[in-house]
Amino acid sequence: RCVRRCDLECPAHSVCRVDDGGELTCECVSGYVPEEVGESESELVCVEAVLNECDEGTHLCADPASCEFTDPGYVCECPSGFTLAEDEHSCDEVDVCAENGDACNGDHEHCEQSDEATAGFVCTCDRGFARKNGSCVGVCSNGMHDCHETALCVADGNVFACRCPDHFEMSTAGQCNQLPVIVVASAVEQIFQYEPFDPWAGVSAYTIVNGKRKWLTDHIVLSVQADIKPGHVARSVDTSLVTIYRLFYELPGTAAYPKPPKTPATLRVLAINECQNAGKYHCLANSVCVNTDANYECKCADGYAGDGKLTGGGSGCIRLLPVIELVEADSPVVLRQYSAFVEPGFSAHFDGQDVTDLVAVSPVDTDVSGTTEVRYSLAMDDLVAEERRVVEVEDVDECKLPPGHLARPTCAEHATCRVRAVDEPVCECGSGFVGDGADSCRCPDGHVLDAGGDGCRRATPDPRCGGLCDADDNATCDQDTNSCRCVSGFERTAADEPCAKVGQVCAAMAATK
Predict the structure, then answer these.
(1) What distance in Å separates the CA atoms of residue 114 and residue 130, rounded to the nearest whole number?
(2) How far apart are CA 150 and CA 390, in angstroms?
(3) How far is it, in rounded angstroms, from Cα 374 to Cα 391?
(4) Which label site among 41, 365, 457, 512 has the fewest CB atoms less than 10 Å from its CB?
(5) CA triplet 236, 242, 246: central angle to 5 degrees?
């Protein structure tokens, strides 16, 4: 379309513009504003704009300082109670107490700033002290608290609190009364399995009534908790088990003792080697006793299966089972993706006979990377033997597989195979070409293959931009800026250089270093 030429003569610091209606006007350039307008726009006068840092938000005043415009420039002003710092941008709080240091010079008192006080400060008693008759005295000194003679006065900030000593309880009247006390004397902390244990040995309880000790041994209640399972509560101590018992001695609540204590004790039952102590294990003749941390196990001899125990509902050791033995090999077996699995070898036996030909071996899928298994199974007389061999399939770059491999995609001419982050190979058209990469890659509309056949160039000269771009086949006209720019996939090393492929530009830049 035709655009009207902007030939209006404009004054200093302004330029000619064509508005949407096609009319010519003069406008001030950036940094200048119109001062006055005469009878025609040619009489426009543009003057330099005055910067107001306070309105623009470009000032350096730091909170709580405020910005005040001075035309030109600005100053920072501080609110009441603050003074402007040496940097003239931030505020320092006025230390009222430092200026009135002699005002609070009494014992156990200090100065604190206060916005509510007329002078801006108050004299406050130190922690643990309170003001009385104009002086600061301890909150637990005579006449300052009303704790009972059996209680302890404890300073809590600038007030007091009444507390009872350990093993005492405060009544509603504020008096401290001694609670019942349970004594566990000479308590056994650990024993070996099967040793006898008396949880009542050395245990007694008493309270103080009217200054005299009263024994309460007959009233003690015992509860036992074992760490066999979380939350399990045992009724008694079973020393055949290797575990930790928590014994809780407690006095039941009565009107006389509304808050009785609960005293815990710990007992550890240590393991012994039952297999070395006759009568402590019960295994069949065709099994072997194996000691464990907590107890023991009966392991059946080779060729037998079961728990080997003779008592306690055990299954004993029953008939011979089929056996599959894997040949020693790297564990796990490591394969490359899409490669064939080579069996390292195995053997199988039943009742002393070689039955390898009856073993079923599961196939291995090496198309998928990761961990997989080879499963071996043998069924004889309703008895089943199974073994597993771990296989690690390493991921490969499908684009580096030999041409024609089923896992490698076939790419169109001018396309390259690449593996994306999702581990999936795709075909991508080369720089300057368009297409899906798999079926075709072609030059963009208006472009043809260059002389070398490995790139695209413009088919006909570009009539735009006054023919400025005709000398460069890989450049196109940018009408917005009325200049030449490189097409996609090309760039320049300098403004006066022709457009070249991205890779060639990098190589050229490296060669100059």
Answers:
(1) 19
(2) 75
(3) 7
(4) 512
(5) 45
The DSSP string of 413-450 is TTEEEEE-TTS-EEEEEPTT-BS-SSS--BPPTTEEE-
C-alpha closest to that of 457 among 444, 439, 441, 438: 444
Whether residue 282 contacts residue 267, with contact meaning beta carbons closer than 8 Å, is answered with no
What is the Cα–Cα distance from 317 to 161, expressed in whole angstroms? Answer: 73
CA 37 to chain centre: 65
Structure token pair of residue 209 = 């009534």
Say if residues 111 and 97 touch (Cβ distance below 8 Å): yes
Degrees to nearest 5, angle at CA 306 with 301 and 310: 90
* Residue pLDDT, tens place only, 222-263: 877 777 666 566 767 888 788 888 888 777 655 555 455 567
How many angstroms separate the CA atoms of 447 and 442, rounded? 9
- DSSP-derived pairing of the beta strands 425-429 and 129-132: unpaired
Nearest Cα to 317, choosing from 335, 305, 334, 330?
305
| 1 sits in which H/E element | none
Which sign, positive or negative, has the C-alpha torsion 323, 327, 328, 334? negative
Among 407, 390, 391, smallest CA distance to 399 is for: 407
pTM of the model: 0.33
Residue type for position 174? G
Q: What's the Rg (C-alpha) of the chain?
A: 48
- Which pair of structure tokens corresponds to residue 151? 């209680």
Contacts for 443 with CB less than 8 Å, ≥ 6 apart: 432, 433, 434, 449, 456
Specify whether the CB–CB gap between 54 and 69 falls below 8 A. Answer: yes
Instruction: For residue 461, give the H/E element and its range.
Output: none
Residue ranges of the chain with per-residue pLDDT less than 50: 258, 505, 507-508, 510-511, 513
Give the DSSP letter string of 249-303: EEPPP-SS-SS--EEEEEEEEE---GGGSTTS--B-TTEEEEE-SSSEEEEEPTT
